[in-house]
Design goal:
2 copies of one chain form a homodimer. The first copy, chain A, is α+β, with helices and mostly antiparallel strands. Chain A is built from 4 helices and 6 strands. In chain A, the strands form 2 sheets. Chain A has a 3-stranded antiparallel sheet with strand order 1-3-2. The first copy, chain A, has a 3-stranded mixed sheet with strand order 5-4-6, with no helix packed on it. In chain A, strand 4 (81-86) and strand 5 (92-96) form a beta hairpin. In chain A, helix 3 crosses helix 4 (47-59). At the A-B interface, strand 6 of A face strand 6 of B. Chain A binds a DNA duplex through helix 2 and helix 4.
DNA sequence: CCGACTATTGCGAATGGTTCGCAATTATGC
DNA sequence: GCATAATTGCGAACCATTCGCAATAGTCGG
């Protein structure tokens, strides 16, 4: 909790109820969730606030974004990882990250998003 | 042209005007374009048909999808490559692909999408 | 602890990219 | 050519996301 509060304060933001609620949901999540899904799971927080919280967390590199189907999905950024998703049934596994972002010397503050898709054992 | 026609036929699809038009635009494109942008550049083809063509080409692994901002952008799948995009000004560079998709033996037909973002030399 | 100053929220409507349903059209194999 | 199935065009519908603004809530100095 202090970690989040400090990180927000450092960037000139406050730790508020909606932000905390979103953060908690993401910590509990075992897989990426869409903004919609998060909104439905969090009672008492407005839809727009969920989106705003997610955008902020993304900006601070606290969450990762992954596009699954037409929707953006969100999950904690740490530990660095990606997902491999079954195109047929949506089954999803974590994949450890092995990228070397130092390869791009002329860009600074490089971050990345990798999504793998395929057919899982059941659907192959 | 034959290449595209054969590929479509193999999957039980026809080579039609709209599909050809979209394909040509993508070949000419030096960078990924959104469906909207492609639609605006292609006269005489309905919006829905552009979307349908893109979905089909994506399904056949002939084009790659990249999410930039809120929109999906499309570009030719070959040669395999990715992009690094400036978060501030949108400047974009190609990055050669160095992924080994054989790492996932339990999934079949694995494909992937990597997007790098950072601050370009001008914006850093 | 109090007030003031900002950041933030909630709300409901608007936005805008994408998809749908269906009749009319077109490519393909025989 | 013809039959047949795939595909298109159209315009409305969808639905995730964003906007504008008044009301609210953190935070910081005193």
């Amino acid at each position: 909790m202090e970690k989040l509060k400090e990180r927000l304060a450092r960037a000139g933001h406050k730790l508020t109820g909606p932000r905390w609620a979103v953060w908690q949901k993401l910590i509990a999540a075992k897989q990426p969730f869409s903004a919609q899904a998060l909104y439905q799971q969090i009672k008492g927080v407005n839809r727009a606030s969920v989106y705003r919280a997610l955008h902020l967390l993304e900006e601070l590199d606290l969450v990762n974004v992954e596009v699954i189907g037409q929707e953006k999905h969100y999950c904690l950024a740490a530990p660095a990882h990606h997902h491999i998703i079954c195109r047929n049934c949506g089954y999803l596994e974590k994949v450890e990250c092995t990228h070397d972002l130092g390869r791009f010397p002329h860009f600074s503050q490089v971050s990345h998003q990798l999504t793998l898709t395929g057919l899982c054992p059941k659907c192959r």
